[in-house]
């Protein structure tokens, strides 16, 4: 199995690149942000719970997120592998993911971080907010809160996988196609190794 974590701050282009990578490598894409938005749009109990956190720019509690992720992975028993996008976002989530994959006799192959600076992120998310309809994309103070949460709670996930020699960085500024080529070059190298 090839299991990739696409990592990086909010607005770094994970969703855009994940969609392209899934096509090229035949993996299953799991975006916890998309899953939460689906639940919110259907007003499910999970969606109602997640909404409170998401609209404040905070993380949804680990046990809720991990349970949802586990269900999604288990729904694809024959997958060749997964691209995780927006997960893990805390070290506890990373530990849960490692455990879940180990139960399947698999592991995280690599974490790839899209490297983009804060000002570019704020600019991109505000632009996305004009069309995304996401309330969390339309308020600069909520965007800055998400960046702060990323640095405090999510960035340690990079160090967690760096310790296992699995963390890589890719320059995240350029055209969508340029960044995609950078990612593919790295993944091809990792898969061959
Ligand atoms: P972005 O790409 O802008 O970071 P996402 O679509 O990945 O946004 O996530 C939107 C929101 O959903 C996050 O700000 C957070 O509140 C919640 N969320 C998504 N994934 C997770 C996760 N793994 N753990 C906790 N909360 C999450």
Give a description of the structure.
The protein contains eight helices and five strands. The chain has a five-stranded parallel sheet, with helices on both faces. Helix 2 (32-41) packs across helix 3 (45-54), helix 4 packs parallel to helix 5 and helix 6 (118-132) packs across helix 7 (140-162). By secondary structure, the protein is α/β, with parallel strands linked by helices. The structure holds adenosine-5'-diphosphate. The site of adenosine-5'-diphosphate has 18 residues, from helix 2 and helix 3.
Order of secondary-structure elements: EHEHHHEHEHHEH
Helical amount? 55-70%
Estimated radius of gyration? 16 Å
What is the CATH superfamily? P-loop containing nucleotide triphosphate hydrolases
Low-confidence stretches: none
Question: What multimeric state do the chains show?
Answer: single chain
- Counting helices, strands and paired strands, the structural category is alpha/beta
Question: Can you tell me the CATH architecture?
Answer: 3-Layer(aba) Sandwich
How much of the polypeptide forms β-strand, as a percent range?
A: 5-15%
CATH topology: Rossmann fold
Give the CATH level 1 class: Alpha Beta
* Count of helix runs: 8
Shape: globular
| Mean of pLDDT | 96
From the N-terminal CA to the C-terminal CA, the straight-line distance is 14 Å
Can you tell me the number of structural domains? 1
DSSP strand tally: 5
Biggest sheet strand line-up: 2-3-1-4-5
Bound ligands, each once: adenosine-5'-diphosphate
């Amino acid at each position: 199995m090839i299991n990739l974590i696409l990592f990086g701050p909010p607005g770094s282009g994970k969703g855009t690149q994940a969609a392209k990578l899934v096509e090229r490598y035949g993996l299953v894409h799991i975006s916890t942000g998309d899953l939460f938005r689906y639940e919110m749009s259907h007003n499910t109990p999970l969606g109602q719970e997640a909404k409170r956190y998401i609209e404040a720019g905070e993380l949804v509690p680990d046990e809720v997120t991990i349970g949802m992720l586990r269900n999604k992975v288990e729904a694809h028993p024959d997958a060749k592998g997964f691209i995780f996008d927006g997960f893990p976002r805390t070290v506890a989530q990373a530990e849960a993911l490692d455990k879940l994959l180990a139960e399947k006799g698999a592991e995280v192959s690599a974490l790839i971080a899209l490297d983009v600076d804060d000002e570019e992120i704020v600019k991109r998310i505000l632009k996305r907010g004009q069309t995304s309809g996401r309330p969390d994309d339309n308020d600069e103070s909520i965007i800055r809160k998400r960046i702060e949460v990323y640095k405090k709670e999510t960035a340690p996930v990079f160090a967690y996988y760096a310790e296992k020699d699995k963390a890589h960085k890719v320059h995240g500024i350029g055209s969508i196609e340029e960044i995609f080529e950078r990612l593919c070059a790295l993944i091809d190298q990792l898969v061959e190794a």
